[in-house]
Amino acid sequence: MGHHNVKGTAVAVSAVVFAGAASAVASASLTATLTGYAAGGYEQVGFNSNLSWDSGTAVTLWSVRAQQHAFTEAGGNQFLSWCAEVYQGVAQGSTYTFDVVAPEQAPGGDVAPGPMGAIKATAARDLFARWINPVNGYVNGAMADRDAKSAAFQIVLWEITHENFTANSAQGILSQMSLTNGAFRADISGETASWYAAIVQSLGVDGFQMVALDGLTDEFAQDQLRLSAIPAPAAIALAGFAGLAARRRRR
User: What is the per-residue pLDDT across 232-245, written as a single tens digit (0 to 9) for each?
Assistant: First the structure.
């Protein structure tokens, strides 16, 4: 999870989840431990749930971890995740029991922004379908671009889940997306900003694509999204992931 370092407040950063295996069953649950972090980086983001999508009122920004998370289930299965809530968190080494729900029902609990509903879920499915590799769970493209592209992907996902859109279609909410106005804000630059623009521009082109997603919800922890089914080799490939993440943090 990500933290900002003001008054010890935890901010969740990674929002969509890559699943190692599993099907989305609304009544199912899984227990998993946050064992590491993957691609991405720290970015300046903020959220005020009281603001409309076109509000110009200032929002305080915090440095948060816009980065994939690596979870390990009790049975040893591993999956990569992205967070669906900016202002809840998870802690490395801690274990959580998530309800597995339809993406429309995530994020759950009483913490804003609340369940995304059908229109936002359509945009989220399109985002995952276009940009997440179903074999390895990372963003599509070259490894050299992975950190900037992953951070940008997370920013787009947060914007989809957090913004107070008024549009009544997935295509409509794309025209209301902005990092400088609204309830959700971010101050990004360089390659991350370039990839953010490319990702947003790709959404909905030639129709909204479909992919099966699971929402993972916990009333007291950061909710996640993940691809519902990943081939077994992908899960095997993640076996050494925690060590790789540790080496990254030491650099």
Answer: 444 434 444 444 44
Q: Structure pTM? A: 0.83
Domain assignments of the chain as residue spans, ordered by start: 2-244
Q: What is the DSSP string of the chain?
A: -EE-SSTT-EE-----EE-SS----TTEEEEEEEEEEEEEEEEEEEE-TTS-TT-------EEEEEEEEEEEETTS-EEEEEES-SS----TT-EEEEEEE-GGG-S-SSSTT---HHHHHHHHHHHHHHHB-TTT-SBSS-GGGHHHHHHHHHHHHHHHHHS----SSHHHHHTT--SSSSSEEEE--HHHHHHHHHHHHHTTTTS-----EEEEEETTEEEEEEES---HHHHHHGGGHHHHHHHHHH-
Confidence of residue 231 (pLDDT cuts 50, 70, 90): low
Cα 195 off chain centre by: 15
pLDDT of the residue at 123: 98
